[in-house]
Design goal:
Blueprint (H helix, E strand, L loop, with lengths): L4 H21 L7 H22 L4 H29 L8 H7 L1 H11 L1 H4 L3 E7 L6 E6 L3 H10 L1
Antiparallel strand pairs: 1-2
């Protein structure tokens, strides 16, 4: 692992997000607190995985942490929507079936991400760019990369 200051900073932000999630989980009886804590935990998965990607020393390690990031990237919009519905008093819409359906698109995208090494639907090609301050993944976007971005923005 190549520890750098940016990776450490992102990791610390992830730890702070976990602390926020624990704080709200302890108050889960409050309206929306449980959904908010899950939102924070999913964001922490993204932040900590990204910090480990930034600290990665080779392409395979960086790609592994990039896949783990997608657990958070794809789940935090749904948890945020659930939180917003609860907090605004529209929790009657949150039946078990509705919540399960909300997670269908993220699960589909996650399935694609897990097998994207062969499918090339999210990233057509990936390499490590070492020209900047720290090594970063450089990728050519695949055909459904934009759909993931739109999903994250609109949910």
């Amino acid at each position: 692992m190549n520890i750098n200051q940016i990776a450490v900073l992102v990791f610390l932000c992830g730890l702070l997000t976990i602390a926020t999630g624990v704080f709200t989980y302890r108050r889960r009886q409050t309206t929306g607190a449980l959904a908010f804590s899950f939102f924070m935990f999913s964001f922490a998965i993204y932040s900590i995985s990204y910090s480990l990607e930034l600290a990665g020393s080779n392409l395979s390690m960086m790609l592994f942490w990039n896949k783990v990031q997608y657990l958070g990237i794809l789940s935090f919009p749904t948890f945020y929507l659930i939180f917003a519905l609860q907090y605004t008093g529209h929790d009657r819409w949150l039946t078990r079936r509705a919540i399960a359906m909300m997670f269908l698109i993220p699960l589909g995208f996650l399935f694609v991400k897990i097998f994207d090494d062969n499918l090339h639907l999210i990233y057509r090609s990936v390499e490590v760019d070492t020209t900047g301050l720290i090594p970063l993944l450089h990728f050519d976007r695949g055909p459904i990369y934009g759909a993931i971005v739109v999903y994250n923005i609109t949910v």
